[in-house]
Write a structure and sequence with these properties.
Layout: E1 2-3, E2 6-7, H1 21-30, E3 35-37, H2 41-49, E4 56-59, H3 67-80, H4 82-87, E5 89-93, E6 98-102
Parallel strand pairs: 3-4, 4-5
Antiparallel strand pairs: 1-2, 5-6
Length: 106
C-alpha cells in the first residue's frame, strides 16, 4: 500500500505474521525494505550481525496508538533521514526528537 508516498507492507502481507525477528529481517533485506517497529530486538540483532541492511526505524513514542499522529511523525522523519536509511541506518523516533545512527554498528 502506498501511503504518503511510501510503499508500506506489514509482515502479514508476506504471510509471515508469526515470523521470528530473524525471518522478518531476512524478508526486509530480500525486499529492500526499511523495518519500522517498537521492538528493540531489531536494533540488537543489527548490532550483533554488524550488517548495514536492513535499515530500521525504532518508534519510542508515548503516542503509538494514535495512528494519524504517528503516520505524520513517521513521514516527516522518513523524509529527513531518507539518505541515511537508503545507505543503512537505525533511526530512533521519540516524542520530541529523533536520532540517526549509521550501520553497521561497530
Amino acid at each position: 500500500m502506498a501511503v504518503l508516498g511510501h510503499h508500506a507492507l506489514h509482515v502479514r502481507d508476506f504471510g509471515a505474521g508469526a515470523a521470528s525477528d530473524d525471518e522478518v529481517m531476512r524478508l526486509a533485506v530480500e525486499h529492500d525494505c526499511v523495518l519500522v517497529s517498537a521492538d528493540t530486538d531489531f536494533g540488537t540483532l543489527l548490532a550483533q550481525l554488524r550488517t548495514a541492511k536492513p535499515s530500521f526505524v525504532l518508534v519510542r513514542t508515548t503516542n503509538r496508538r494514535r495512528a494519524i499522529g504517528l503516520a505524520s511523525l513517521l513521514n516527516g522523519v522518513l523524509a529527513m533521514a531518507e539518505k541515511e536509511l537508503a545507505s543503512g541506518a537505525i533511526v530512533t523516533i521519540r516524542d520530541d526528537a529523533f536520532r540517526v545512527r549509521s550501520l553497521p554498528l561497530w
